[in-house]
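FORM 7B: Structural annotation worksheet

SECTION A. Query
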Amino acid sequence: MSRILKYLALGGALLLVLAVAYGAKGYFDALHDADGLRQRADRLIAAGLGGSDLGPGRLDILLKVQDPAFAEHAGIDFTTAGAGATTVTQSLAKRLAFDRFRPGIGKIRQTGYALGLERRLDKAQIMALWLDTLEMGRGPNGWMTGFYRASEAIFKRPPAELTEDEFLRLVAVLIAPANYDLRGEDMALDDRVERIKRLVAAQCAPMDRGDVWLEGCR
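SECTION B. Predicted structure
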């Protein structure tokens, strides 16, 4: 039995070493990619496609739903209510670092890449890249990518010119873009928008870190 336990301990240690190495690869890959990503982000910001261009107070609304501690964390968040398992930076890393992301072990490299992004890019650059790469669901001409592009495709106006309800509909789809339909009536989407309204008005709060569906705001 002691020999079996010894082998199990060695196996566990090996898996830990491999996991750390895989995470480190993601981190250093992000450092390698950082110069090009920084230039891309700066072009987006210069074109008026950054977080500060969403309209007065709207970046705060978006972050309250998607990543409440974005301004403070270094890429990961294990404690904030409503944060879920993936920060904005990890979400961006998922799209930048993988041709095809697979849950499980992929989360390790994703997290390492996110930490690398936070090391080399500022928050405004990360936000601009995130907005540009977001999956937004189905639009008039097929699948939509990018918050600003979805705003133009669905409402024919940039986010800063949308009504509050229109803006919140774009925010609401982010949790599961394939499940909602921005093109017409969608009762499930309407329900999520109402939950977000209550959250933003401080009439409710997520029940815990994992409450990304805002069950605490029913």
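SECTION C. Observations
The chain has eight helices and two strands. Confidence is low (pLDDT under 50) at residues 7-14.

SECTION D. Sign-off
Analyst initials: ____
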